[in-house]
Amino acid sequence: MDIPILKYVDILIGLALVMVVVSTIVLAITQTLLNGTFARARHLQRGLRRVIISIEPTEMSDHALYLSRLIVRHPLIGQQTMFTPLRRWIGALRARRAARKNEDVEPLPPVSPGSIVQREELAYLMIEFAAGEGPLMYPAQAGETPKKIAQAQNAVAQALRMTGVEDPAATLRAIRLKVVENERAQPDQPSTRWRANAVADCATSDFLGKLHTSFDGTMTRVADGFTAESKLWVSAVALLVAVALQLDSFALLKRLSIDDTYRDTFVQVAASLDEERDAIRASDRLSPQQRAQQLASNEDSLAQARESLTLLGSPAINLLPRVVQPTEPATTWDRLRVYLPARNAVPGVLLSWVLLSLGAPFWFDMLKDLLRLRSLLARKDDAERGGRQTTQPPTPRPAPTPAVRAVPETAGEAGDLSATGAVG
Questions:
Q1: Domain count of the fold of the chain
Q2: d(CA 138, CA 152)
Q3: pLDDT score, position 319
């Protein structure tokens, strides 16, 4: 029974290639939205708030939110961006407006919030803040400590005293000296290890124990929360992209199954992309002259692939239902309906939404595995075809051996007389 397994693999390769291209667009839009809304920083800030409250709920519950916002904007954690001057100007404007209204304002450093903080960094920054030192004490104007920051600093200092750090300033100086000693004694270790060992040696207290106990579990839940939000963003963006492109997966699969030329072109493009990726990985070991030659060959192959796709039509356009603009739309719904998929294409668009929600990494791995499987199937198919086409002489059959009848033991020297008909 001849089962066209190779054809089915080629159809899946074509589908995976389209999903790789479109899911890359979804990934780019999603990352832009996540970075623009500071999703990582928001989840980190919530986690830090829970960690700070767990140290001493009585003293820290009223200031934990503001402290978490301060810590993620520390110069060692926050990010200096092109919007820093604008943030500084907005902060000064808010401070002047609050001063006119005689209101308290929460001054923040004019940097973008960071998304990563280590456990020893958090312990060091809290001790530094409790000692009244560091850049967090002067976020608005140098030399002046705003009232809100002074209140938060007093609360942190009181919480540290209640948990075993009696003198934050002396503890901070001891940590700094210990960091220098660790660097001198173990220069091969990273700076994070010097600081972690210094904090553990000089600030051994209930404060450090509570921080170590709650930090790791809280950060794990922060990562889970950010992952869940990212999946929601990916799903929403995938739906918008699938509807905007009117990407009908059923129509794509149907054309890939009936159009051999179209399917072969997709396979060639996918193979060329895979070869180009392998060539980029291997280009680090090439000389500049060899790298230039390889770049020229890659440009030629991409030009050929682009020409093939131009002749056949782009999959994101040629496979989609044509949008026909009515001559005179009567209502607003008629104007919007032309940009929505046709009724018979809705199932295919919904399937595309589900497939795009799997993410670009999934389709990259799927395309790589399918190309590897196709190469194995193609090699096996070529070997079987070559075996069928090879002419081999028939193997001669051995001549049959004549049957020999057994001689009865009682016949004696006369032999078997029944064999000759000489009985009697």
A1: 2
A2: 13
A3: 42
> At 311, is the pLDDT very low, low, confident or very high (cuts 50, 70, 90)?
very low
Q: Are residues 111 and 146 in the same domain?
A: yes
Residue 317: the pLDDT is 40
Classified as helix, coil or strand, 354 is helix
pLDDT digits (tens, 9 = 90+) for 240-292: 999 888 888 998 888 888 888 888 888 888 777 766 666 655 555 555 666 55
Within-domain flag for 189: yes
Helix axes 5-36, 39-55, angle to 10 degrees: 60
Q: How far apart are the first and last CA of the chain?
A: 65
Domain assignment of residue 95, given as a range: 38-227
Q: Which of 34, 46, 55 minimizes the C-alpha distance to 221?
A: 46
Distance CA 362, CA 327 (A): 43
pTM of the predicted structure, to 2 decimals: 0.69
In eight-state DSSP terms, residue 332 is H
Q: CA nearest 367: which of 23, 19, 24, 25? A: 19
Dihedral sign of CA atoms 142, 148, 152, 154 in order: positive
Q: How far apart are CA 246 and CA 321, in angstroms?
A: 7
The answer to whether the CB of 199 falls within 8 A of the CB of 124 is yes
In-domain check, residue 176: yes
- In 3-state terms the chain splits into helix, strand, coil percentages (rounded to 5) of 70, 0, 30
| Secondary structure letter of residue 79 according to DSSP | B
Structure confidence by residue, pLDDT tens digits, 158-187: 999 999 998 999 999 999 999 999 999 988
In angstroms, rounded to a whole number, what is the distance separating the alpha carbons of residues 370 and 9? 7
Q: How far apart are CA 277 and CA 279, in angstroms?
A: 5
CA 73 – CA 65 distance, rounded (Å): 13
Nearest to 50 by CA among 263, 213, 218, 191: 218
* Distance (Å, whole) CA 198 – CA 183: 10
